[in-house]
Write the structure tokens for this entry.
Amino acid sequence: MIDGLFLADYQADPFYNMALDEYLFESVIAGNIECCLRIYSWQTATITFGLNQQEEKALDWSQVGETPVIRRVTGGRALLHDPDELTYCFAANLASFDSESGPTSSRDLFRRVADSLVIFLEHFGIDANYARASASSDSSPVKNQKSACFASHSRFEILNSNRKIIASAQRVVGNSVIQHGSIKWHRIVEHPALRLTALSVEQECTPQRLTRVMFDQAGETMRQVFTDQFEISFQSLNHSNLDNLTFEKRLKSVRTNSTGRREIFEQKG
């Protein structure tokens, strides 16, 4: 069994959310953590955009208003995280998943994560599959794209009736990987600052609040699915056990330079 950490944060501050994902990824890169799984939701609606996107093209800044905007540690395109979505983060050292048949590649791991997300949705009666290839509209360089994340799909993103319902983004640094994503199991919410297409119109369903009970149930389900699929022994991480000095520096960096390229982005990989 692989040793892993599990964290859950219900309705957390958006800057805290992105800072903690960065902190966990840094901890994996440094060898302090073998792998970790985190689920969380958002205190307020927030826009995040990808590592390689040009800030001025990522969204219509004249329409942002009071919505927080944060550059992610991962790639992909801009999207709105609404308080009723479930968000996940999985960070790991690839070597931990090597087997007798050979080393594990980042592609292998991302495919296994996609399989796990499909199984997770099945527990809630949602029939889904993952994209075997990126959509043609996703072929141009991300830095030049102006459409929003849910306007198209990339390989291994999760689809329901050919509509993307989980948007995921990755990053690889050396032998360390991170993937996090937005699970829109109730609906896709639009924002005037994002350039959307017909593929990303709001789903025709009754809005459903992500209650604490639903959040806890989803968290335990995802934890069990990843335990079974990856043979990980997860230990719950108490937030008081974080390296507070290191994390507070990371949180300050995210708050003061939310849309810029912070130092973790400059590492090769």
Remarks:
- The chain has one domain: 2-266.
- Residues 2-266 form a domain with the BirA Bifunctional Protein; domain 2 fold (CATH 3.30.930.10).
